[in-house]
Amino acid sequence: AVTRTFSIIKPDATRRNLTGAVTKLLEEAGLRVVASKRIHMTRDQAGGFYAVHKERPFYNDLCTFMTSGPVVVQVLEGEDAVKRNRDVMGATNPADAAEGTIRKLYAESIEANSVHGSDSDENAAIEIAFFFQPNEIVG
Ligand code: CMP
């Protein structure tokens, strides 16, 4: 089925002017950008977005990193979008990411790993609603 997922192009990637390169890989993987905006997250936004990781040892550094520069938040649409996006992103840790994936090509570290993607349809809906109003998504 055609579904939607939520993506973030992270500060390490925007800093290196990789927004287009990352988006090209997403598009070539069969995903369509149906909403996109460049924002500088506040600490509250980062903390809220990653609240599920609140008890993890990397939480504070992650929030600092995600507010260290601009990000591009996107809604992606395509056949089985969550899985399609996770496949093209590659493993969280670039050391484990497969050849040709975004993280293998571009990620600097497990933290500065260039992209975020939702891990389930349920979380995709929550994450999309965190950053986008319905009328900002144009399918
Ligand atoms: P993301 O998919 O955005 O979800 C949580 C983020 O935490 C992850 O990508 C990484 O950027 C970051 N992170 C930092 N350290 C770790 C770790 N040890 N395990 C998982 N994620 C980590």
UniProtKB/TrEMBL annotation:
MF term (GO), any: nucleoside diphosphate kinase activity
Record's keyword terms, sorted: ATP-binding, Cytoplasm, Kinase, Magnesium, Metal-binding, Nucleotide metabolism, Nucleotide-binding, Phosphoprotein, Transferase
Keyword presence, Transmembrane: no
Protein's cellular compartments: Cytoplasm
Keyword Cytoplasm: yes
Residue ranges occupied by any Nucleoside diphosphate kinase-like domain in the UniProt entry: 2-139
Residue sites binding ATP per the record: K10, F58, R86, T92, R103, N113
Enzymatic class: transferase
Record family assignment: Belongs to the NDK family.
Official protein name in the record: Nucleoside diphosphate kinase
Species whose genome carries this gene: Sphingomonas brevis
Gene assigned in the entry: ndk
